[in-house]
Amino acid sequence: MAARFASRLSHVGRSVFGGLGNISSGSLRTSLDSTWNNFLSQQQRTFIQMRTVLKVVDNSGAKKVMCIQALKGKKGARLGDTIVASVKEAHPNGKVKKGEVVYGVVVRAAMQRGRCDGSEVKFDDNAVVLLDKQGQPRGTRVFGPVPHELRKKKHLKILTLAEHIA
């Protein structure tokens, strides 16, 4: 789809402004480049979906996990949703091993989420806290900021372990 979008933009540039001089085609190219960069930046801010790699922000032993399935919703997971993930990188002496299938709660997401007061919360990375079968955190510490929206999703234990609540 991205290639088709780029080909349409370049086709429009040739057919409409093909007879004009180099100055106008240069300004058209810069506007097309800025449009393309804007399009790419919008594409990066999506749901946590299948094959999304997330950073693990607890001390359970895993470093990175890859989402296998979001347990709620068709499009994917957002802040506070539970996912099923596969461990891709792990510390050698951790509780979790590479290749293990685990449950996790999304505590940071790059996609913005609106709050009741009209503000929006958005993080720089996608992060998860690993859970056991009973829904309790596997680690004893949670690093980095955690949004207070987890309170609505009944993840109070994660909020008590967190060092900073955003």
Automatic annotation (TrEMBL):
A Pfam family recorded for this sequence: Ribosomal_L14
GO cellular component: mitochondrial large ribosomal subunit
Gene3D superfamilies: Ribosomal protein L14
InterPro entries: Ribosomal_uL14 (IPR000218), Ribosomal_uL14_bac-type (IPR005745), Ribosomal_uL14_CS (IPR019972), Ribosomal_uL14_sf (IPR036853)
Gene Ontology terms describing biological process: translation
A GO molecular-function annotation: structural constituent of ribosome
The entry's keywords: Ribonucleoprotein, Ribosomal protein, RNA-binding, rRNA-binding
UniProt family annotation: Belongs to the universal ribosomal protein uL14 family.
HAMAP family hit by this protein: Ribosomal_uL14
Protein known as: 50S ribosomal protein HLP, mitochondrial
Organism of provenance: Vitis vinifera (Grape)
Lineage: Eukaryota, Viridiplantae, Streptophyta, Embryophyta, Tracheophyta
